[in-house]
Amino acid sequence: MAYINVKNISKDYSRREANGKCNTIHVLKDVSFEIEKGEFVCLLGFSGCGKSTILNLLAGFETPSSGSVEIDGREVTKPSTRYITIFQHYGLLPWKTVQKNVELGMEILSLSKKDRAVRAQHYIELVGLKGLEEQFPSQLSGGQQQRVAIARSLAVNPDILFMDEPFGALDPVIRNKLQNDLLKIVSEQKKTVVFVTHDIEEAVYLADRIFLMKSDPGHLEKIYDIKIPHPRNRNTDDFGQYRKFIYNKLFSIQEGKPEYII
Amino acid sequence: MKHLLYSIASFVIALMIWQLLILLGDFDSALFPNPWHVAQALAETISNGTLLEGIAASLYRFAVGYLVSAVAGVLLGLLLGNVNVLFRLSNPVIQLIRPIAPVAWMPFIVLLMGIGDTPAIVIIFLAGFFPVLLTTARAVHTVDDIYLKVARNYGITKFSTIFQITLPAIFPQIANSLHIALGTSWIFLVSGEMVGTQSGLGFMIIDARNNMRTDILLATMLVIGVIGFILDLLIGKFEKKVLKHYGIH
User: Fold this and answer.
1) Partner of B38 at 20 to 30 A CA spacing, among A63, A192, B151, B192?
2) Please, how many CA atoms are within 13 Å of residue B237, restricted to the half-sphere of its CB?
């Protein structure tokens, strides 16, 4: 069986309208997929397609209205340090230093104070923030803050990283740099990654497979393999064709030539 | 620098108006002393020790009442904020008690506990407690969902989350309510001391009135203002430090 196994999940919310009536909103309808260990999957779609909802369900922050989520053969019912979520707005605690933020996740691991500090130090260096240990998040740039969040997640040695538009708030140069560093780190540490984005280029650059999502109600439209070897180059024809192809699919543009790639 | 000049000018103008009122109005100098007489009265109360004694008594009551109200307000606020049933059960009664001026409690408390330190401390407690309690309880619900998700993701227990995540996350709001509570507590301390005690700055005012010493009366009023101002300055510094630490400027 696959490492991550999602079967027929739906998610409904009830919302009270202005006239007092309760309305059911179908955020996600009948989504099924499998992800193998070590894969890098991008959930790509416009806002409202339910891609963040899928991530919340996978991470155990919410439970599906119907269907099931299994990771490594076990049903997901609550969050776990085996799969850590990284958010767009970092989720760093502003009252703690970089060092203490990275140590946060290690509190439930039975480590001595010294071991924690050493381990935090290791991951702070890994993400390239050596020397900034005693800074507070507000003293760092957005890119640096997201690096701290990545270090914090790696420090508890999770099997999976769930990333919810993690680079969405960063400027392009910093974003490209972080994408490269992320790819390097997750391939070295053999992490499985589920990465939510609405940026086509980002998805094509990072993903082994792109899960294309559409809305009303949110559903998984189709899965595409990106068969470009790493390291990828945004300026090659291959890359451009994939980008164009995914773009057309995302915007539902009919393609004239059926003999296209894939 | 400019700020300082304005402050000095402000006091000079106030003193001039005060002196002008005395020159123009036909007041009995025993009832409306001029600034110079008040300054002399101030020197008199300092040299005979009554002022310092009064300040010490007031500050002691203030410290006890304010600290108890702050600690109790924050802890109970965290409890009410996290346990919705408790909040909904207690909120109606709190809303009913809150508008009762702390001074209105005075006769009841004096009859119950007798005069002394206790009534004044209770008044200060009442003045500070409710704002801090309600601000804390409400602020609990404003904690960014992302922090709570992070706490759940990293397996931090619910109890530990309250003190590790919620409390620090809402601390800027708590600091602000502590600032406001400090001002009201100081105001009510004086009114508490005017009825329930035989010492302290509030008592000095009543005592000066009984002895027809308006110069001492005004001097004491000025001291109350100055101490209140200093307390506000100190907690304002503390609040600024907190906000800076949180990256809120």
Assistant:
1) B192
2) 5
| Confidence category of residue B25, pLDDT binned at 50, 70, 90 | confident
With tokens 């507590």, the residue in question is B185
Rounded to a whole number, what is the distance in Å from the CA of A232 to chain B's nearest CA? 32
Question: DSSP class of residue A24?
Answer: E
With tokens 């010493």, the residue in question is B213
The minimal CB distance from A138 to the residues B156, B160, B247 is found for: B247
ipTM summary value:
0.89
Residue appearing with tokens 């999957």: A41
Angle, alpha carbons A181-A136-A113 (nearest 5°): 85
Reported as half-sphere exposure (CB side, CA atoms, 13 A), residue A57 has a value of 27
With tokens 């409306």, the residue in question is B32
Nearest Cα residue to A102 out of A79, A134, A140: A134
d(CA A207, CA A224): 10
Yes or no: say if A212 and A250 are a contact pair by the CB < 8 Å rule. yes
With residues binned 3-state (H G I as helix, E B as strand, rest as coil), the percentages for chain A, rounded to 5, are 35, 25, 40
Which residues of chain A neighbour B153 with C-beta distances below 8 Å? 59, 61, 79-81, 84-85, 105
- Find chain B residues with C-beta within 8 A of A136's C-beta: 245, 247
Alpha-carbon gap, residue B120 to A108, rounded angstroms? 46
Encoding tokens for residue B53? 């004694």
And the tokens for A110? 């039975």
- The pLDDT tens digits of the residues spanning B124-178 come to 999 999 999 999 999 999 999 999 999 999 999 999 999 989 999 999 899 999 9
Query: pLDDT category, A260, cuts 50, 70, 90?
Result: low
Report all structural domains of chain A as residue ranges with CATH numbers, in order of start: 1-82+162-262 (3.40.50.300), 92-157 (no CATH)
Q: Cα separation of B19 and B15, whole Å?
A: 6
Distances in whole angstroms, Cα of residue B179 to Cα of each of B117, B201, B240: 23, 22, 11
